[in-house]
Amino acid sequence: MQFDLLHIGTLVFLCHLLGAIAACHAILHTRTSQGAIAWAVSLVAMPYLTLIPYLFLGRSKFAGYVDARRFGNELLRTRAQPPEWDTQSSHERPAQALGAHLVRSLTRLSGMPFLPGNAVRTLVNGEATFSAILEAIENARSYVIVQFFIVRADALGELIKDTLIAKVAQGVRAYVLYDSIGSFDLPHRYVAAMRAGGVEMHPFATNQRFVNRFQLNFRNHRKIVVVDGECAFVGGHNIGVEYLGGKPPLSPWRDTHIEVRGPAVASIQFVFTEDWYWATQQLPPLEAPPRVPVAAIPAVPARAAAAVAASVPAAARMATLSAAAAPLADDAANDGAPLPVSHALAADAHQTARVAEASHATQATQATQAATEATHATLAAEASPPSPFAAVSAPAPVRSAAAHPNLSTDSGHAGNMHCLVVPSGPADKQETCSLFFVEAISAARERVWITTPYLVPDEAVFSALRLAALRGVDVRILIPSRRDHIVVFEASRLYAYDSVRAGVRVFRYRPGFLHQKVVLIDDEAAAVGSANLDNRSFRLNFEIMVLTVDRGFAAEVEAMLLRDFAESFEIDRSEYRDSPAWRRMAMHVARLFAPIL
What we know:
The chain has helices at residues 5-29, 33-45, 47-57, 62-80, 84-87, 92-98, 100-110, 125-138, 155-169, 188-196, 264-280, 301-306, 313-335, 341-383, 432-443, 459-470, 486-501, 535-540, 551-566, 574-577, 581-591; strands at 115-124, 143-148, 173-179, 200-204, 224-227, 231-235, 256-261, 417-424, 447-451, 455-456, 474-480, 505-509, 518-521, 525-529, 533-534, 543-549, 568-570. By secondary structure, it is of the alpha/beta class.
């Protein structure tokens, strides 16, 4: 059958007709007015390009999904609410630091209370993060829960898999939850091997009856690890070698996790329980062993044991992965050119062989160093109270009370931090994530520093940023200078320009891709988690943030961010004004899709 102009005209007419019908549907069912306008304009003007994406990204099943998810969460809270919420909640210190109104709104928004008696520390970049996670898993006695947006079957993914299977063989229960879209390329053999090894592993999907790989909305973007109900890890890392710097175009990868010990772990674990219940319709039996008091966590044995390479294979393999990724990151930082995959594999294999060859020659030295380190730590422990995180690498340096008179040593006690866990998602009655950022920005009196890989805020958050700048607050936003998603990057450039015009200071991180999600509020509090400053995190994804009210922790985060700012450059209006006309047009076109970015 040959097509003539009549047939082509008919197809064009039908395409525009379907686009108009879809635009009407978007106006009726899209959650926000900005989203409705963006969809309607694009569907009418460019139906050839937007009809298919609308079928996958549209909101037609939004209401039914939200109702089902919300009912499940409310039912779960009546059955599995952590007892810490009733027995250990305390709002006095957070109210003094941030204001009673903020504490009231955030606790109502999250549905969880502030809990005192926690110890929190930052884990900067992938090596520190996964070393700490692997050490915690290896010391597990009862259960391990693992949840990530992205799980890859690469070297790091294999290391996590082998470690979990080994712990299951020792009688530890392991539960793994991954997002079906974020982990779209996870091979079936990886999941099958996990299940064959006794690990309970399931995908998270918005439709419980099947995994719809073409439904891109409502993804679970959370990154959670909990061991025995005693320690938890939350932040921006996923399971993949790129988070260790193994992806040259974006290396070195800059990201941040936190380790939490104390009552707030129960809140983080409950967030996982909600997601697990939705995915499996079952409650995981998470009876923890007798809890070790936060202030009494041993400072020496775990680190001393980890120093003997032969007895901790996962730690040795983690060091191998990090060492193999380092040359790739250095090469990418030097010339910016991506290395061939064969080069990366060769470097990994070569480094693995070198580490294996050297391990036998250094075991005696490492054992001697471990014994010496244990002796010094024991002597130090006799002179001062043990730190809850002395068993692992030291946190970033913090400001001293002498250098900063406003830093209270009492409130900065490592085992008495107040934490609020803020889970958010499209099933919430309120737009939790967006309102969390609005409240955090509004609470700032002197400064609010935010790091995010994507700067595509909604109108409420952008207004809060502008108002804070008008109040004289030091508002800073740190974003990447390298792009991983072109549309989001171009939209972010335009929002960065608008922010600079409003008095917000915007910086671009030079060395590699910046992926951390951190908010610093004055000298009082800091939040770390999985939420980006974009509409997808605000309204479409399931996220988690942990807000810690403590001057010592805020000082630790400040020191970390100051190091990041030192490796960044501040942008001005010229970034937009000096761009060619086609680039400025691309920015404005990209911003049309802001409601789904």
